[in-house]
Write a structure and sequence with these properties.
Layout: H1 3-20, H2 22-32, H3 37-69, H4 73-92, H5 115-124, H6 127-140, H7 144-166, H8 168-211
Helix pairs in contact: 1-6, 1-7, 1-8, 2-7, 2-8, 3-5, 3-6, 3-7, 4-6, 4-8, 6-7
Length: 213
């Protein structure tokens, strides 16, 4: 595989992993399925498949959406970076990303299919995830190899998410609430750094675009 594609795919994977934040979803999932071990085993598969379908749709249609709106790659890079930085701020304090809109257990009625809401959307494929995918597809342009790398990165991230949810109660016992908060804070730092880099890339790209005129 081309080194450039490999680097792009790795960057896409890291960015999506910190935005989706599988360890941060686990406490919510465990709380929503408390006392229902059968649901806890069945829900992760459906939730992850739905979230993956939503993400894949934006990989395919993302470029067309930007083109239809008349948004340049550089503008979206800057706005996407700002949006991701906003998502990173709550994570630095051990909370879920600000764009993922977690819902408390009280807001989900007993027997409701939580695999669709709130797990698939907005916890796994929320606004932050969709914005990140649009940002990545705008960088990939019409390069099919880069788009394929994004799709592969999304698949790996959701496989990690599935494993995290499936082993949710065990992970909670292993890591404890403190361990989950530490993991979320570390991901927040990484996401903040990536967000700043996206803004810098957008500004640099736009400057070169103006200079070339």
């Amino acid at each position: 595989m081309d080194q450039d594609i490999l680097r792009f795919g790795l960057a896409a994977f890291v960015t999506l992993l910190v935005v989706v934040d599988p360890p941060g979803v686990v406490p919510m999932f465990v709380a929503l399925t408390e006392g229902e071990p059968e649901r806890r085993r069945a829900i992760p598969t459906r939730a992850v498949l739905i979230a993956f379908g939503v993400a894949l749709f934006f990989v395919i249609a993302g470029r067309a959406v930007l083109s239809y709106l008349g948004v340049t790659v550089h503008a979206f890079s800057i706005s996407g970076g700002i949006l991701l930085f906003v998502a990173a701020m709550p994570m630095l304090f051990g909370q879920r990303g600000g764009l993922q809109s977690p819902q408390s257990k009280e807001h989900v009625s007993v027997g409701e299919d939580i695999s669709v809401f709130p797990l698939a959307m907005p916890l796994l494929s929320g606004p932050g995830t969709i914005a990140t995918i649009l940002l990545l597809t705008s960088q990939a342009g019409n390069d099919l190899r880069r788009l394929g790398a994004i799709g592969f990165a999304i698949a790996i991230v959701f496989i990690v998410s599935f494993i995290s949810l499936y082993l949710g109660s065990r992970l909670m016992r292993l890591l404890g609430e403190g361990g989950v908060h530490i993991a979320t804070r570390v991901m927040g730092i990484v996401l903040a750094a990536l967000a700043v880099q996206y803004v810098l890339n957008g500004i640099t790209g736009y400057y070169h675009l103006l200079s070339g005129r």
